[in-house]
Amino acid sequence: MALHTDIPTRHEIERLLNSTAQHCVSIYLPTHRVTQETQQDRILLRDLTRQAVDQLHAAGADAHDTADIEAHLLHLAEDDDEFWMDQADSLAIFASPNRFETHRLPNHLMTSLEVSDRFHIKPLMRAVTFPHAAWILALAQGSVRLLEMGPTGAPEEVHVEEMPRDAWESSGNKVHKAREGAYARRVDTALRQVLTGSDLPLVLAASQPMAALYRSVNTYPHLVAEREHGNPETSTDAELADAARSILDDVYAEQLADLAVLFDERRSQGRTAVDIADVARLATMGAVDTLLVDIDVTVPGSVDDLGAVTFDDADDAINYGVTDEITRRVLLTSGRVLAVRGDDIPDGGPTAAILRYTT
């Protein structure tokens, strides 16, 4: 089945980070791509809505505000059949008295509900860090097509207006290097209408010399570096997707390996922190350049204006989670946040930070 995603951009995430209200509801739930199977997802959303309303009542939320949030959530769960026809692997929902938005994500996220005075965005960062989704450009002299790929399943071909059919369309009967270059430029120009604003990697499926020609004219900033596989005209879309997923796995593994080396270098220079209280204080100071945060761990509590942490025993509608607030402060000071699994965090804690300077 096709994967339909609307992964937020950095700007959209920052808008969520800056959107505070007395009561904000953040919901994450796994979803199914097959429309007939989404009924169970809608039932789960109704249950989470009930839990959110209970927490809002317990926190003394305004009755009108609570009713407004509940109405939006129930409408999505019970009435918006068209919305549920196109799903990815997880759904993020953000609701407050003055905001309601959803994002369909290509990652398999755990079910969670957070009610506080700000939105819970840490799980969203996983989709931005390692989306396991990509565009595939299958480019040959005789054909070109753009595919959208998710973490699993078959990719979907995307219609691109003004995409040339082949190199001969641009050059007449004779194809030579200059004409192939013109063909590659036309492909790049056509792709802009689809790829502009996207942060997903673009994997190039092309053989030489076409691969080199396309790379020389490409304007999309997220083209995966120097990894091609054979002639796409002899491969099915499913085979291209399998190869692209392997490429993404290698890319992500290399990124984490490089980061681990950098962390060790910065540790020797006194430019790292792993204790969560230290990380919170340094994030508040704007000293964190790169934050690693465990996607699966929630640390109940809050962080004050000076960066001091107050821990709590459990989540409720009053506290908003320490790691989430650290994430928020790093992003708002132009830091980089990588939402990873626990095994990828140095020293095994919920967070680890590379600092901009020695403190």
Written account of the structure:
The chain has a four-stranded antiparallel β-sheet, with helices on both faces. The chain has a four-stranded mixed β-sheet with strand order 7-6-5-8, with helices on one face. The protein is α+β, with helices and mostly antiparallel strands and 359 residues long. It has helices at 10-18, 39-58, 63-78, 122-129, 167-171, 177-195, 210-217, 237-268, 276-285, 322-332; strands spanning 20-30, 90-96, 99-105, 112-118, 134-140, 143-149, 156-158, 202-205, 272-273, 288-294, 301-303, 309-311, 336-340, 351-355. It has three domains: 10-129, Translation, Eukaryotic Peptide Chain Release Factor Subunit 1, Chain A; 134-255, Nucleotidyltransferase, domain 5; 269-355, 60s Ribosomal Protein L30, Chain: A. Helix 9 runs parallel beside helix 10. The chain is globular. The mean pLDDT is 89. Helix content is 38%, strand content 22%.
